[in-house]
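As the work plan foresaw, the team has encoded backbone shapes as discrete tokens. One protein thus recorded appears below exactly as we store it.

:::
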Amino acid sequence: MQKNLFDHFSQDIPLSEAISERYLQYALSTIMHRALPDARDGLKPVQRRILYAMQELKLSSTSGFRKSAKISGDVMGNYHPHGEQAIYDALARMAQDFNLRYPLVDGQGNFGNIDGDKPASSRYTEARLTTFAESMLVGLNEDSVDFRPNYDDTLEEPVLLPSSFPNLLANGSTGIAVGMAANIPPHNIIELCNTCIHLIRYPDPPIKTRMSKLPGPDFPTGGIIVSTRDQIEKAYVAGKGQIRVRARWEVERLDRNQWQIVVTEIPYQVQKSKLIEGLAKLVQNKKTQLLADVRDESTETIRIVLEPKTRKIEPETLMEAIFKLTEMETRFSLNLNVLIDGQRPKVCDPWEILRAFLNHRIVILKRRTRFRIKKIDHRLTLLEGYLVAFLNLDRVIEIIRYEDKPKETLIEEFELHEVQAEAILNMRLRSLRKLEEIELQNEQTRLTKERCDLDDLLNSDELQKNKITDELKQIKTIFAKNPACRRRTGFSDMSDAIDFELDDVIESEPVTVICSELGWIRLYRGHVPFDQDFKFRDGDSLKFALHGQSTDKLVIFGSNGRFYSLAASSIPGGRGLGEPIRLMLDLPNEIEIQALLFHNPERQLVVTSETGYGFIVDETEVLASTKAGKQVLNLKKGDIGKSCVPCEGDHLALVGANRKMLVVPLSEIPVQVKGTGVRLQKFPKSRLSDIKTFAMEEGLFWKDPRGKTRQAKEVEKWIGKRGSMGLKAPYGFPTKNVFS
């Protein structure tokens, strides 16, 4: 067998170990170099490289524009060995004023819009830096940051940018890595500067002071934050949370006592075209008496006109309904996950991010100061040589004219450094005038004083804090003159909102809800008899049939112990075979629907698991606010949610798969909000099959296999202690061990 040339380089290792190690390397690379921003300059590598490449191309805010294809090509060829389209997408996003609160790229051409349209090809658009980007690059050529070789060792690129303002919180950032993500909202740059100035003097101020300086996000699209101050504070302190944002609107009065709603700002990251589509569905929806027409009259500014279907409804009530039914209100999921010192991913509060920025600015200040001292020392060395030449001008001229090696002679005779001698030899004759000597002496005095001041700055923490404070005040003064830096997003206390129910705008009428064994649900107008021959798909059949009103909500209990909520008005009409209920809710395929009820806020429910545990819960506690549902019954491993029935009467009957029946008073069952509950019936080698609540004076009813209703008037025999096993079920009880 021929020996492989590379055999001595190979090594046998377990596949699981190799995969684990390489996936970890990939995960770290994704976290460090692609997804999470650096807390110091707030940029991802591709953004940093774009800004640096544009500076190298001398694309300042006052220069001409250059083709985006040229910029993205330079970035790809010199610094970022990835696809040109990905680079151009990042560049285009930095130019979009509806995505970035303070755009870093000044774009000319079609860079996309708030409707969701994509930017034009890079060969059609042009770009240059904005003043915000330039302030992030100040001091880059003064040894303020480290540089590293690019991917092919032909050039160098900055590890991070000096960044004169806290860009991460000013512009926000978003990214998804392996096992972690970041979603940082933008903030007002003036408020951030004020907060930084305060943190320099008071590193750990009280939370109320912090919130007064930085009250909340400031989105580029404006809108109104309706989360309470306490909710924003809680999200900030934890570094995670949700912030509710609504569109800004106003009532426009028309002739003849008519009015219409005009929306002037929409929530952040909502595409206007999709928002219009959602509003158009309300116009087409016959169940909701909301809108007669929707018009998009937007130009450079947002203007969406909403005509109400009836002007008897109050504008505030109409808007509350629209907020609930469309993306006119959204929740921004805050996740302040950032790289600290470029190395450690960490969920921080905003003030910790600002402290990381301030520490970065201290490092930048020290490095620029040392760089300036080095420049001054070099210049003072030259000035010292020049002044020696002026004091011995005739002898210097004589040496230059007659010596074969004037440089060596100058060094030896006047004890000069080589650089000083070289500078003297390079002096022009017109520099030998008396006025020039005076200017050199003045420059020497000035630089000597400046050097002393810089030494003092390096050796004094207090002076460094003062310097950083002055820089932030200067930045704040410059940005305060820019109208774009004024706060756009307002605040509104939800306690001022009107008490609104969706029923107010939905026409109430009798309906029948049909749900099949496979989970297909539909709605019929009117109370249709349950014995009607309903059509289903092959292999499917009726499971639930309910009578209610179109304004009601449905409560669904799953075998995972979660409750789900569904508005009857959102269920499709009964002409077809319905739609899968799992598409309307985040209901996993393996989860069975155990109960389907119309919601009654004044009612209580008995919920049980298959192992015989359960409790009573108020029905108001089981309503879910999201599609994911609400966990109410906690289950042990191997257990499932089995039954959910309304509390009607004074006793509960339980029957197991072993045909053992037990009756217990409802008063012995605890009322809980959530939990595992207590043992209701004991099953050593069996499981719970069904439950039923009833009034003792009326007796216990069930249906036999032929559909006839049977009654057991005397059920005292089966009354037992809660948690006991029970007795054999009454004669004639269904063999399937269910009450109906």
Notes: The mean pLDDT is 89. The chain has five domains: 36-163, 248-327, 358-480, 508-585, 600-740.
